[in-house]
Amino acid sequence: MLLFAFATDSWMMFVFLIPYCLGGIAGPALQAVISIQVPNTEQGEIQGTLTSLMSASAIVGPPVMTGIFYYFTKEDAPFEFAGAPFLLAAILMIISAFMAFYSFKKHKVKTSKTVVLKEE
After folding, report:
1. Is the pLDDT of residue 11 over 90?
2. Radius of gyration (Cα) for the chain, nearest Å?
3. 18-27, 46-55, 63-72 — which is least confidently predicted?
4. For residues 99 and 93, is the Cβ–Cβ distance under 8 A?
5. Using CB atoms within 10 A of its CB, is residue 53 exposed (0-12), middle (13-18) or buried (19+)?
6. Fewer C-beta neighbours within 10 Å, C or N terminus of the chain?
7. How far is CA 99 from CA 53, 92, 102, in A?
C-alpha cells in the first residue's frame, strides 16, 4: 500500500501489483494460525467472526477511502495527494501487524495441531 501511495507513473502501479498480490497469501495463513488457537467446538464461531470482520471492513472501507481521496484531490485541498487513501491503508496495516505480533507473542501461538487418525 505504501508503494501505491507514492507511485508517480501508471506503469509503477502494475509493478507494485506483484508484491501486493503475493500478500494475499497472508489471509489464509493468518486464518490457519487463528483457528489453531481455539478448540474444535469453537471453529465455526471464530470463522464467522473473521468473516464478519472482513465484511465490516468491506462496507466501511470504500466510503472512507473515497472520502479521503476526494478531500486530497479537490480543488481547494490543503495539498494534492491522490495516494492519501493508500497511505492510510498502509498505516492501518502496520498498526494491525504490530497488534497481531504482540498478541501472538503474549499468548505463545501454537504453530501446528497434532492430528490423530483412527484406524479401523
Report:
1. yes
2. 19
3. 18-27
4. no
5. exposed
6. C
7. 16, 11, 5
The CA-atom distances, in angstroms, between 79 and each of 72, 75, 84, 119 are 7, 9, 11, 68
Residues near 116 by beta carbon (within 8 Å), at least 6 away in sequence: none
How many other CB atoms are found less than 10 A from the CB of residue 86? Answer: 21
What is the CA 72 to chain-centroid distance, rounded? Answer: 23
Q: Give 69-110 pLDDT, tens digit per residue.
A: 999 999 999 999 999 999 999 999 899 889 888 877 776 655
Question: Whole-angstrom Cα distance, residue 30 to residue 53?
Answer: 14
Whole-prediction pTM: 0.76
Q: For residue 3, which amino acid is it?
A: L
Q: If you ran DSSP here, which 8-state letter would residue 78 be given?
A: S
DSSP string computed for 18-60: HHHHHGGGHHHHHHHHHHHTS-GGGHHHHHHHHHHHHHHHHHH
Among 90, 69, 81, 62, smallest CA distance to 1 is for: 90
Average pLDDT (45-73) is 94
